[in-house]
Amino acid sequence: PPSKNIDHPAQPTSRNRPKMSEGFRITSFRPSLENVLLRPGPYSSESGALPMGEHDPSSSTSSLLTSKILVIGAGGLGCELLKDLAMSGFRTIEVIDLDTIDVTNLNRQFLFRQKDVGKSKAEVAAAFIRERCPWINITAHMGKIQDKPVEFYKGFNVIISGLDNVEARRWLNAMIVSLVAVDEDGDPDPETIIPIIDGGTEGFRGQARVIIPRITSCFECSLDAFPPQKTFPMCTIAETPRLPEHCISYAFMLEWPKVFPDKKLDKDSPEDMEWVYDRALERANKYKIKGVTYMLTMGVVKNIIPAVASTNAVVAAACVNECLKMVTFGSQTLNTYMMYMGNEGVYSHTFVYEQKPNCPVCTSAIRKMDLPPTTLLYELIQKLVDGDLRLKKPSITSDATTLYMQAPPALEKMTSPNLDKPLSELFDSGDELTITDPVFPGSKSLSLVVTFTE
Fold it and tell me: pLDDT digits over 181-202, tens only?
């Protein structure tokens, strides 16, 4: 039943739901939520291992009403996040997503309908929430997170990430960490800290994570837990296929360009995907390889991570629960990582993900590397790409000169002769180099000291 001080139905139905224009306004919350927010208790935020603030029952509801939340991603996890935020009492939400709705999304991304296919995920999701919960101020953005200015991210109290790829999460993490102001002693200014709640799912497994920039470990600290995307040698694909994935890769990487040299494969086209599936199946039959299916074909071509609606629901609930605790201080914050495993039952556990001492994003440590002086510059760049840093297109400068720049083309052409020079000709042992890369936003860079070894 609704609280005594609610002057309208707590859960309006489609029949009695007033329009915003009629002055409809939520003035309270469900009794179960009020019991947490309006009463002191022994398990509030300040009593936990990762205290965020002191719970004040007199102001916790206003914090919930005035907090501004950014949801990144409006796919399977994003739909659940938006629904949970709306039903938890948050009033100001923004959502950003680059993608449009595909018919294959409709089985689990429940904010979308058949008529929405081809439209912006963020805009349709926001419109659905706005229609169902007209008291919520929700704004949609269609585009890349990298295209938004720094000021955009500074305006939020909490950011919840529902991204489905590692590189975008790395960029977001580096951006939000870079917003934290640090004093002369290296201590962060609490007013500049914007917490990130990172959610992710894969099949029946998922995770929810709390990142307090400069306080806890960041996403980059745990990069080793995300192995690089699996690729197959071209010679194996073309000559000695052994797996169904080899056959599918052959069909869309080698056969498609031969048959359709002037047409780019449309990964969202059922006709194009059916063609790839048929050719992959033919090749699999030729080499007596079993396991080629249409769903696997889509997964290989589009690099799809298997999605299960129930996993999205569990992980999104955990993320929004942490968001609620962060803005109200009504309960202890997760410290810092929750794993969910639903393959053979319902299991979960939490643990503290420790900060990496030499993390290039959340620590100020200078990276060090010992190399022979005969090492060529392109070999150093390859180490930065293939090593634990997993950079994409690093550019390198020293205090004296620019060693190599990936862009613009004119500068790349001018500095490319350095790639075949030994490091000893380009700088002295112990010099500090500055590394920039697309995984770091804006002016964020990495300091590297190379010491020559005999």
Answer: 988 877 889 999 999 999 999 8
Task: Please state whether 186 falls in left (phi above 0), alpha (psi between -120 and 50) or beta.
Answer: left
Angle at 72 between CA 69 and CA 75, to 5 degrees: 125
Helices 270-286, 294-302: axis angle to 10 degrees equals 110
**Measured between alpha carbons, how far is 97 from 145 in angstroms, rounded to an integer?**
8
Mean pLDDT for 374-391 is 90
pLDDT tens-digit readout, 337-356: 999 999 888 899 999 999 98
Spatial separation of the C-alpha atoms in residues 367 and 370, rounded to whole Å: 10
E strand segments, 143-270: 158-161, 196-202, 205-211
Contact predicate 199/316, CB 8 Å: yes
Q: Residue ranges of the alpha helices (H) in 221-304?
A: 234-239, 244-250, 256-259, 270-286, 294-302
- Predicted confidence at residue 363, as pLDDT, reads 84
Question: Contact at 8 Å (CB) between 338 and 322?
Answer: no
**Alpha-carbon distance 388 to 122, whole Å?**
34
Q: Is the pLDDT of residue 4 over 60?
A: no
Active site residues: 235
Q: How does pLDDT run across 70-124, given as a tens digit for each residue? A: 999 999 999 999 999 999 989 999 999 998 888 878 888 999 999 999 999 999 9
Instruction: State the DSSP string of 152-166.
Output: HHHT-SEEEE---SH
The answer to whether the CB of 419 falls within 8 A of the CB of 377 is yes
User: According to the model, what pLDDT value does residue 29 have?
Assistant: 59
CA–CA gap between residue 198 and residue 316 (Å, rounded): 10
Q: 43 near 325, Cβ under 8 Å?
A: no
